[in-house]
Amino acid sequence: MVYRVTASRQTPFHNLRATLMGLVLLAILPALGLALYHGLALRAQARNEAQAEAVKRARNLAAVQKEHYEAVRRLVETLAATTVVRVIDPKGCSLLFSQLKAQSGEGLANILAVSANGEAIGQAVPEAGDLFAPETSPLGVPTYAGRSWFTTVSQTKACVSEPFALTPDGRPAMTVACPALGWDGQVKAVVAASMTLDGLLQSADAATDGVVGVLAPDGVLLAAHPAEVAAVGTQVAGSSLARTVLASPSGNAEVPGLGGSPKLVGFDRLLPGLSGSPTVFVEIPLEEAYAPARKLLVEQTLWLALVGLVGLGVAWALGSRLLVRPITVMAGAAEAIGRGEFSVRLDAAGQITELSRLGRAFNRMAEGLEERQADLDQKTKELENSNKDLEQFAYVASHDLQEPLRKITSFADLLAKRCSGQLDENGQRYVAYMVDGARRMSQLITHLLDFSRIGSRGKAFVPADLNEPLDAALENLELSLQEHQAVVSRGALPMVTADAAQLCQLFQNLIGNAVKYRGQAAPAIAVTAERRDKAWVVAVADNGPGIAPQHHERIFRMFQRLQADQDRRGAGIGLAFCKRIVERHGGRIWVESEEGQGSTFFFTLPDAEGPSA
Ligand code: ADP
């Protein structure tokens, strides 16, 4: 028969499975760690890219302004060399300048030509507000002679670029001025152009969604886009933004922006060659700047989780199929063997070599056990048959022997009664011996018959209070106990599972012996019980002459009596009876005694769930 056991479904977290999951987790942990490390590296790279992008934006804006500056400077140099300036043609100058201003777009605010004595020759935008507004000389004539760019150019006879500064009407502007030299090398006129940051701010519109600002070296905000973020002219030198931006020519940092919230700020010097050059900075909100890096990390984490879960799922499924199920089947089969079902076999123990080997070994073991069990069954049967035969033999023998014995006894009696006058003293003694011998033989045969019936005629084991068979035995022995003034004491006796009638016989034999083999003093007998290793040990102790150790085993054999007992009646079968009864109950019997010290007979009885009869 092929035995199949379906896997038991007690709890989803089987021990083996949990172990398997743990092992898989351990195995994939380094890979997951590596992937996580890689993800973090990618994230750091994305952050670096975002920071580089912030600097790039600032550089692009600075480049726009620089290009613009170069163009204006070239324009001013060129204009200084034109005839209209050299010949001091006010109309020609104004016309040319206004045309050039119109062509050059936002960043160029005004162009002005001034004669050598500081008077205006002409300008592109006459009403340009504070840009190139003249001062009034002490004589009440409008003049530019006091302007620093004019005096510097007049003295150095070279072009000059003044740093960006706020005009009185609050506009950031810088002046580029060049001299128009005559053939004698003297300054004939000075051409100046006023540049603003409008071009830069306009390109910022398209270049970035973030805040763009321009900061003067002294910490004054020269421009801001969008305009509502901060007022132009605000002194921000104390802010960490200004401290960071002004500390180095170019770079990036995470600092609170103009609005106060943390930003990624990229910055660059506008005109690095010129002294007092302002710095342009670009603010990008941190969430926006690091959005790609965060997205990357989230994606990476999700992938990792997915890979981990798939790995665990596969391990779970394969573990169940390849390990847990076959092992559960084997456990079921082993339990069946434990219950004595030796016909159990495993059909296949799984695809794993070790398990199938285990399965084959299990099957071989089961076969071996089955064979042995069959062998054992056979022998037990033979033994039972032979026991029955023996019992039958004992019964028949004793039954058939009783008859001729009865004849011998009755005819010997007749002989004694009827022919007593004809027999002499010797003859009468011989007849008496014969009668006595025949009676003892009859008793022996009866004992043998009883002995043979202990196993087969015993009653079923039932729960019984040990006090009851003891009481019954004491009742049977009442006369003898009284006659010898014997005292029997007892301890607390337990419930046992036993054949109470046989226990009564057991107590009767042991207590009867204690009285029979008494010493000088009146017999004192104690019956106690104590629990040892799942069994009850019952002790019957007396104060008799004791038994020498060399006889401790012999006295439990059939017809074994000690030499000293020949004058006391007995067949040497009582203790053999006791042994047979105790062994039928699955226990053992022994004696502990020293000569002159009294004897204690012990026997064990199994627990209440003891053997079934
Ligand atoms: P018997 O019929 O002779 O009493 P048992 O089998 O009951 O046979 O006893 C065997 C021998 O063990 C006895 O002859 C006796 O010598 C010894 N014996 C048994 N019980 C005791 C006892 N309580 N004290 C001393 N000797 C004992």
UniProtKB/TrEMBL annotation:
Residues annotated as transmembrane: 20-40, 302-319
Keyword Membrane found: yes
Domain HAMP: 321-374
PROSITE patterns, per the entry: HAMP, HIS_KIN
Residue span(s) of domain Histidine kinase: 396-609
Name of the protein: histidine kinase
SMART domains linked to this entry: HAMP (SM00304), HATPase_c (SM00387), HisKA (SM00388)
EC number: 2.7.13.3
GO cellular component: membrane
InterPro entries, alphabetized: HAMP_dom, HATPase_C_sf, HATPase_dom, His_kinase_dom, HisK_dim/P_dom, HisK_dim/P_sf, Sensor_kinase/Photoreceptor, Sig_transdc_His_kin-like_C
EC main group: transferase
Cellular localization per UniProt: Membrane
GO MF terms held by the record: phosphorelay sensor kinase activity
SUPFAM superfamilies: ATPase domain of HSP90 chaperone/DNA topoisomerase II/histidine kinase, HAMP domain-like, Homodimeric domain of signal transducing histidine kinase
Keywords assigned by UniProt, alphabetized: Kinase, Membrane, Phosphoprotein, Transferase, Transmembrane, Transmembrane helix
Reaction it catalyzes: ATP + protein L-histidine = ADP + protein N-phospho-L-histidine
A family per Pfam: HATPase_c
